[in-house]
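Sample 1 of the test manifest.
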Amino acid sequence: MSGLKKDILAIAKGAKEASLIMGQIHSSVKDKALLAMADGLERNKARILSANKKDILAAKNKKLKASFIERLTLNDKRIKAMADSLRQVAAIRDPIGEIIKIWTRPNGLWIGKLRVPLGVVGVIYESRPNVTADCIGLCLKSGNSAILRGGSEAINSNISIYAVLNEAARRSGIPEGAINLIRTTDRKAVHILLTLSDYVDLIIPRGGESLIKEVAGRSRIPVLKHYKGVCHIYVDEDADLNMAERVCFNAKVQRPSVCNAMETLLVSRDVAARFLPSMIKRFKEAGVEIRGCPVTRKIVRDIKAATEKDWSTEYLDLILSVKVVKDLDEAVEHINRYSTKLSDAIVTENYHASVEFLRRVDSAAVYVNASTRFTDGGEFGFGAEIGISTDKFHARGPVGAEELTSYKYIVFGSGQIRE
Amino acid sequence: MSGLKKDILAIAKGAKEASLIMGQIHSSVKDKALLAMADGLERNKARILSANKKDILAAKNKKLKASFIERLTLNDKRIKAMADSLRQVAAIRDPIGEIIKIWTRPNGLWIGKLRVPLGVVGVIYESRPNVTADCIGLCLKSGNSAILRGGSEAINSNISIYAVLNEAARRSGIPEGAINLIRTTDRKAVHILLTLSDYVDLIIPRGGESLIKEVAGRSRIPVLKHYKGVCHIYVDEDADLNMAERVCFNAKVQRPSVCNAMETLLVSRDVAARFLPSMIKRFKEAGVEIRGCPVTRKIVRDIKAATEKDWSTEYLDLILSVKVVKDLDEAVEHINRYSTKLSDAIVTENYHASVEFLRRVDSAAVYVNASTRFTDGGEFGFGAEIGISTDKFHARGPVGAEELTSYKYIVFGSGQIRE
């Protein structure tokens, strides 16, 4: 066995062992640890920022993109945000130990479903160092051991954040082995980790599509995946058009680079002529490039034609495709065909249309009269998120502490035997 | 593309399309279909039994084992049991459309978690033809499309059961493509199915370990696995020893060939000398071979010594390993080390011991004062089961209609935008 394999195996085995203790730790201990970790981040700000500086310098020397360096960079505000997120996770209800339901069988058995941790969660992520704190916080809250593997470009930042958090956790009574960071930047470490299905219960890749595809392709452990976000808003013929303009503008412009931003606007043909001119004018003023269907281009001149490819493109940029549709049916059909099933919305004052849209759109989060941008663990009230699942299996949408759990059946008998 | 690949792809695409309709069908339609399917089985008994005869004859010609032929064989009673199981599935509450929880955010958004079907469920199973009816029933109840692939030895039985069920379902308003049987016995059909992750959402292998390992190894689709059942009962020092004898006897002897039968008996050393002599006598009278630890063999003479291998062996037979332990701690430790985490029990009248056992034993179903044999979808009140999961991911323990579901978030706004 190679030295690397031995190291990764030792981490995984230690994490599994610690997970048996983690599952039994009281909420008060976990929450105290989370608060100590938040304080630790703020107290050790200088140390973390100096480690981060090394990573930034190396990234600049490697001539990495400005947007990459922006994501990598920590500052006072971002460290405070990391600490606040840990405090929010401390404040949410502990999912572990919840009796989800309990019922009585005709033979008198009580059968209950008790929420328990998954065990060991592996997170493989790219350059954002704040992911380190979010993932450790959510794993701890949900009673799981965590094994983190961050991007090599953030290695100094991650080691420094990890050291601060692990120290605070250990001092608060969290067992050794519960929180782990893989320090080597050798890619083989990830390949080894993905085979250790006896010790690791879940793998969460966070990052670009190629990382996710590689992890999902190699893993012998269940993976929670998050692919692209091609999100839609449908402006119904019964929409409040002022509200529609506000919601659509927010969904496209407030932060275009994220997965829950709108990429395609669908408009009922009954209101297209009234709605589109001022809406598109406002988008253009904000620097948004519009790519329209033929009907859109008759209503508003001088815009690019959308091609078939546009309907399935995640721009992550100030670009928007616009299509005029006949009615709700055509909107739902378009969405169920082209959406990546992450976040889609309708704007309408019509009760029937709202219910039909909620029922029939097959996406992780379906909205009436709100921006698609709310699909986020923090916005949903989970304190933070470890990722957003576009799978239907196990967890869908924002993944918080509750989604990092399993259950066991507890059965209370009085001597029942099976006939 | 090969003809076979074209065929399997067409089935999978058709199933996906039908699943969009299936997710919207009202409970009353699904339950009417389930009852019509049950009646259909009973009305077409002769036709099914005659197809089954062909399979039995072929199996006998191939000189397959008696136990294999026993599992393959249908009769009046077994057809009635299949029909009754469909009626029980009709009687349970529809999981689809349930709002699991709903909450209000500080900005006024209502966020609800709505239960929805997974989509398309593939089941790959071996020779028991009753699995065909159970799986179709549970998939239909949970609004999923089903693709079944049974063992080649039961092909005539399966085609005949499928034809009866599909006909009854179609006449009751279930869409074409919702229920599918792969008729070819070519193994490549399974290999192709396991790659179609764009159309199939879950694969459930039911059968021996080699089938499960092969499916899990090849599948690009999430798999719910059920490996071995090494189940324990711990007789605590505060047990009612009469109850303990009844429960242990039932767990070992009532049906030794199944996964939830007891394989290892653990006894507190404080009661071993009082409990074991009469318990082992009763087991021996029932033909059970005992393999004991050194202490057990001091208490009861003339029994075989258990080896290290015995503690992790699933006998599926009238064999039982017995170990005397110091206390609850040692029992829990032994179970968490050797159990396959399916079904483990304690017999005790001590409150503290019962709670500690329920908390600390890391198994899918943990019992106080009841036989491990109750780990079963029917016994849990699910109407039937499509399998028993020894995974922690997505579903654990008996898998009924509710476990074949996912959820989506439905969000009710009044124009909220993200700041």
